[in-house]
Amino acid sequence: MSNFLKSERTGPILTLTMNQPDTRNALTGNSAVQEFVDACAAISLDRSIRVVILAAEGPVFCSGGNVKDMQRFFTQDLSPEVIREEYRNGIQRLPKALYNLDVPLIAAVNGPAIGAGLDLTCMCDIRIASENATFAESFVKVGIVPGDGGAWLLPRVVGMSKASEMAFTGEALSAAQALACGLVSRVVPPGDLLAEARALAGKIAANPAGVLRMTKRLLREGERSSLESLLELSAGYQAIAHKTADHKEAVMAFVEKRKPKFAD
Question: What is the pLDDT of residues 196-215, one digit of tens each?
Fold first, then answer.
């Protein structure tokens, strides 16, 4: 059993739960990054998984980097080159794995998401927040920069002006403020969080697995490509989609006025 992540499978829905509440689910100084990378690789290969929920044990969703562990950067003789490589081969593997995952990913944010913990939520496609959740791009508060890709991720979620305000002040947003700026898509009572996430996951998982993955890939590519390039990719994906058994089943179910039954 993994040390940081717990996994639970319910049909086509996989729930990954961060399970180190004693460290406030910190992402450094432990096996968290490697476990996320391994989980993403396994999910990518399992075509029966249609949606993933990311949740957390304890009152804190994720505290980001382990601040106590950061003391070694000035108590040990570590050169800037060594530290840079540690980032490249450490936490920077996390956004590459999670952001590029083809399966739709929902963050169920139960409490504070701080620093890299906030950026972790931005690696997901959809964020649902408990009323107890808070969000802070707080690197500046401990004298460092977003080393995990947050400067790329956060502006794409909330826009450059709001991302700049958050990064320059390090101040936290409440769940209501996060909803107002589009950081999260809904805020729910704490006791309803996982039920809401599972209900949304169920609506997503009711659709064809292959088309879900292609749709997510188009959304990702659309963030960084020209309209012309995206149209070309869309045409290719659509040609594939039209020839799938799931497309035929969806069309016939519509014509015959029945519920479609897609392949597992």
Answer: 999 999 999 999 999 999 99
